[in-house]
């Protein structure tokens, strides 16, 4: 087993006033050649957007983009004609493919919106752009991991053009769960949304990240009440 740990306080940070963003991997003006990616996981941004503010229309191509709201409401508009609001308890995916433009704004004028912006390199280039979002309320489980992203249309969660599986878990103190790697050669990146956990004996706190590879499973135990995101991805580009 090989591991790498990124403590919350070591992340890149940019505060633009309307946007307060923490970058687990190199992004925009934050550059660390040792923190470019974890396998095909390229971006993990922890964003807070002020009331009524947001990202103006901008382009993407050949990237799988997953957004997970943590608090508040985020309004999305894109060049495919989609207009939607995602909120805590939803997950959104965009396959940028041959190219799209979109904007994201805090829908509310009186409170912040907080969300994770995650970019994954695709295993197929120049696909037809695609948008989808789902509510997790009917699939969420307590004290075990449940799937929110997969490579296969029709499976639980949204799907991406990559051999990647994302799972969420909300755990009471003292509860543990084992996660088994689904595809040989993949690694898993754990991001601690809330609380404290131990992963195979390593203690992690809120917004810490830990990558694990060259193993077929990891064990996650909640030292305190905790919420954890697991991102299983290919380690090769």
Can you tag this structure with a few keywords?
single chain, 237 residues, mainly beta, Jelly Rolls, 7-stranded mixed sheet, 7-stranded antiparallel sheet
List strands and helices in order, with pairings.
Layout: E1 2-6, E2 12-15, E3 19-23, E4 41-49, E5 54-60, E6 64-71, E7 73-78, E8 83-87, E9 90-95, E10 100-106, E11 113-120, E12 130-135, E13 146-150, E14 158-159, E15 165-171, E16 176-180, E17 186-194, E18 197-199, E19 202-204, E20 209-213, E21 217-222, E22 226-234
Parallel strand pairs: 13-14
Antiparallel strand pairs: 1-20, 2-3, 3-4, 4-11, 5-10, 6-9, 6-11, 7-8, 7-10, 9-12, 13-15, 15-22, 16-21, 17-20, 17-22, 18-19, 18-21
Write structural notes for this entry.
The protein has strands at 2-6, 12-15, 19-23, 41-49, 54-60, 64-71, 73-78, 83-87, 90-95, 100-106, 113-120, 130-135, 146-150, 158-159, 165-171, 176-180, 186-194, 197-199, 202-204, 209-213, 217-222, 226-234. By secondary structure, the protein is an all-beta fold. The strands form four sheets. A seven-stranded mixed beta sheet has the order 1-20-17-22-15-13-14, with no helix packed on it. It has a seven-stranded antiparallel beta sheet with strand order 2-3-4-11-6-9-12, with no helix packed on it. Strands 5-10-7-8 form a four-stranded antiparallel beta sheet, with no helix packed on it. Strand 7 and strand 8 form a beta hairpin. The mean pLDDT is 96.
